[in-house]
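User: Modeling request: complex.
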Amino acid sequence: MEILKNYGLAKLNTFGISARAKFFTEIHDENNLKELFILPEFKNNDKLFLGGGSNVLFTKDFNGIIVLNKLKGIKILEETPKYTLLRAMGGEIWHDLVSFAVSREYWGIENLSLIPGTVGAAPMQNIGAYGVELKETLENVEAYEIETGVKRIFKKEECDFGYRDSIFKNKLKGRYFISAITLKLNKTEKKNISYKVLREYLEKNKIEVRTSKDISDAIVQIRRSKLPDPAVIGNAGSFFKNVFLKSEKLKQLLEKYPKMPYFEEDGLIKIPAGWLIEQCGWKGKRVGNVGVHDKQALVLVNHGGATGEEMRNLAEQIINAVFTKFSLTLVPEVNLI
Ligand code: EPU
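Assistant: Request completed. Predicted assembly structure:
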């Protein structure tokens, strides 16, 4: 296994930030993980496992080892008239898995089309979009314990999934390397068009949903119209999580801001962070090399040549502005390294 030194990370994070890592390696075969876990460069340093780099902000050089998950493969494990069990390796591109599923008319992950990143990163934060979350179709997660090199299979119930959250981000943070996931996808129609933006798009364009690909195509169009392409302008999708609050706080806010949008989700009230940021006047604003996207205020962008420090300063200014105006604290969805 080759361990590289002082490795440039600009191409490995979708913000396109030019940080460096003290050590760097790639994993192409899960049998090499045991060997990696006992190397001194690994054992004696901070570690960061990276997939598509679409949810990290390097605020400085990383003084440890970065391990890129390049495990590939998508396999049908079991097929019945009703469902398919699909196993995908962690280094696969998430959208490639969606394309694999919709091209075979499987239902369940079409609403998650075009989410940047890899399969291995998906359970970390229980990716979600357009009314669907990964946890709804996930069967299990395969992961290697760093300390022992032993593989463990986490059933869905053991993953503590929440809004953009899982056990891998909390209790087990930094302790496992996610090697594969298995999904249970439906073979009979099971569409979810509950999300307003999606429903409106389908109605407006007179699209009658017959296959999961019809939904996937619609989501791709919606996302392309709103979210910047990281290949063109550096970004990591939503920089912040949406805000959840209790009904008393909602009442107070609605008295002051009667037009504030809110949504009920799992018995909780969700306020779109994008709206809060927009109300503070930040949408479309630029400060030096960084800024807020003009079509979706939740997305921070690198206009070119930005440092991670600049991006973090912008995020802090936005957090302060939202707190001053609404007494609500925005929490980054992106991992600050
Ligand atoms: N809104 C504004 N101004 C903005 C952006 C949003 O007022 O600049 C308000 C509007 O009321 C709009 C509502 O927010 O109707 C919802 O906006 P949108 O449908 O764009 O969704 P979101 O809640 O802002 C979340 C996810 C996205 C995901 C979309 C679609 C989070 C943090 N973000 O955004 O995920 O694509 O829903 O389901 O939950 C990502 O995680 O990287 C990501 C892009």
